[in-house]
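Hey team,

Filing this mostly as a record. A colleague (T.K.) asked me to run one chain through the structure pipeline before their review meeting, and I want the input and output archived in the tracker in case anyone asks later how it was produced. No errors, nothing strange. Just documentation.

Input sequence:
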Amino acid sequence: MWLISTNLMDEPTLWEGRFKASLIEEDQYLLNCYRYIELNPVRAKMVSRPEEYVWSSYHYNGLQKQDDLITPHTLYLQLGRTYEERQQAYLALFKTALGPAIVTEIRSCLQSGMPLGDERFKRQIEQRLNVSVGQVNRGRPRKNVCKKSDTPMAF
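Output structure:
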């Protein structure tokens, strides 16, 4: 590998700001995230179908191509008893497009670091970690501005 910078302390890392992470509620959201990820190259118009993207796990999950780098998630394994049943169930997920609301919610959670899940899931995280997971307003609190009234104030 070529040395990218002679003084690495002065330069940002190669992957800085590239990857984002968010907690995901498995039952309702994980397979939607699989679909979101597998369809990213299609949305970016890099390919016309997810199986055309070389670096996709779609080859393993939907096309039965063995890949030692992939460990199937338990939710994926629950799609069917056999590899063929799981493959058919996974392919069926891609017969309908992800709705714009789901795409927006996934993107919003990734950008903000918020957990992706329902309110119960977020409350569980708050209780377990003893932190607030909601978005807070950034910056200083706004000043209270007095409105001019029609009647003068008496002192």
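Quick notes for T.K.: Residues 39 and 50 are 6 Å apart (CA to CA). The chain is about 40% helix and 0% strand.
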